[in-house]
Design goal:
Layout lengths: L22 H8 L5 E6 L20 E4 L2 E4 L23 E7 L22 H7 L4 E7 L1 H14 L3 E10 L6 H11 L3 E3 L7
Parallel strand pairs: 1-4, 5-6, 6-7
Antiparallel strand pairs: 2-3
The structure holds pyrazine-2-carboxylic acid and zinc ion.
């Protein structure tokens, strides 16, 4: 369950269109999952990905950082804020791990495996391997950012990855969702409908 947090739901600081539609299929899938991992975007105040940190810059623009281009966002998922909380309807009671990412002031992390500097590791790959888990069923927000990067890094780590198409939604800036789906398909990410699991 990737980043199903208030700020990414309708009315939130970085609302994903129709974002709350993922909650029902996710909850149904979670009942069948042998193990549940939840991620939470968890930024300090003044995080480098916030446009407000960069004078003259607007949300949805970008800046160059030492590790590459960084997209700029409205302030979102600030540690301890209501917007950073998991969606109230999300059924997380079976989760074995709640992984917080994007916690370094100067480094973003869309991926649940590897931060945007492509060097700092979250520990998730080792966690999954130590538990003998080989196949990830990806759900949550947003298809074109945190889902995309998490899926690609999972493939690079050798995991099988299944994207549940009705349990994800995207931000979709300039066609980024269709590009993300294409990129994931090329990386060997399988795509299914939740009914295929939740039969
Ligand atoms: C996300 C933009 C900024 C996401 C997180 O969860 O997809 N997108 N931070
Ligand atoms: Zn973020």
């Amino acid at each position: 369950m990737v980043d199903v947090q208030n700020d990414f739901l309708p009315g939130g600081a970085l609302a994903v269109p129709d974002g709350d539609a993922v909650i029902a299929p996710i909850n149904r899938l979670a009942r069948h999952a042998p193990h549940v991992v939840v991620t939470q975007d968890w930024h300090p105040t003044g995080h480098v990905s916030f446009a407000s940190r960069h004078p003259g810059k607007m949300p949805f623009g970008k800046i160059a950082l030492p590790y590459g281009d960084q997209a700029l966002w409205p302030d979102h998922c600030v540690q301890g804020s209501p917007g950073a909380e998991l969606a109230p309807g999300l059924e997380v009671s079976r989760a074995g791990l709640i992984l917080r990412k994007g916690t370094q002031p100067g480094v973003d992390s869309y991926s649940a495996f590897l931060e945007a500097d492509r060097t700092a590791r979250t520990g998730l790959a080792a966690y999954l391997r130590e538990r003998g888990l080989t196949r990830l069923v990806l759900t949550g927000l947003a298809t074109d950012f945190c889902i995309l990067w998490t899926a690609l890094d999972a493939r690079a780590e050798g995991f099988d990855v299944v994207l549940v198409e009705d349990a994800v939604r995207g931000i979709d800036a300039d066609g980024s969702v269709s590009r993300a789906l294409e990129t994931m398909a090329q990386a060997g990410v399988e795509r299914i409908h939740s009914q295929a699991i939740d039969a």
